# Entry
Amino acid sequence: MLNTQIFKCTSVEEIKLNTDLLDKAVVVSPLRFDVLGVNKETTQWRGIFNITQDRFTKPISEMYHLVTHKEFLDSFADALQNLNLKFEMHINSMGNTIITDILFLDKKIEMVKLNEEFIVGIRLINSYDRSYAITISPRLLRLVCTNGMVLVKDETIFSIKHSSKLAKQIETLVETKISEIINKTEYLQKLVEESIGDSIEWKYAGKILEKLLKQDKHTDGILKNLGITRIETKNPLDKKKPVITYIGLEEGVKLTRWQIYNAITAYLTHNEQLSPYVETVMQSKAEKLLLTPLQQAIKIE
# Structure
């Protein structure tokens, strides 16, 4: 059974206490295989074993160095202390994978054109099953509605393979990356303000979301945030392709890319039924829309 845990930390001490409770893993070698009833072993490959779940996760090469969840997050705790930052950390653990959001409570961006404030933060990801590399991404929290924005394609993203060099230098790398992201406010402000500049007829929003998300339940939830209802009826000419219509807004009303993007992040941030993994995948799709002018977004595949 998946060992799901959620922790909120506001001090270095709390971080280190809670990381003791996260899944632990070790590297095992040699690996043994049953090949047609014959026991074989290899020393060319090793493996990651999740001790907490008592389960093998993935084979790894000799060059791979395991960085545990505790080692990763404790390094962040030390970096936060060294930088003297006031923060709030939310750790979402799914056993083999942790997705952790940190907000720097004293680091805010004022978006003049929106007349709004955002809190600067970061998202951290680490995994034992190699579904993710070690990842550090910029994150913003929109204060007016507490929507979380994760910018995975920004040039400040930090995603690298596990290595012995990383294990030795992780704290220094973490401090450098935190400082880069905090000081990257001009880019973030430009990105948001540019998204206000283009608009489309509201009926196109549904088509964009359908192509982008490819799941009706998510599309419907996001359209609801925009005041739009998606209706599906049978197609007498093609049973496999239903007729889709949208109702809700007045004719001629246009939506900006920022409005559509915020409808997505509101759905992701405030939907407690979404797993952190699904939320992370959909955040990357939301960012694709944020970076794509709406006339091009209509053609998103």
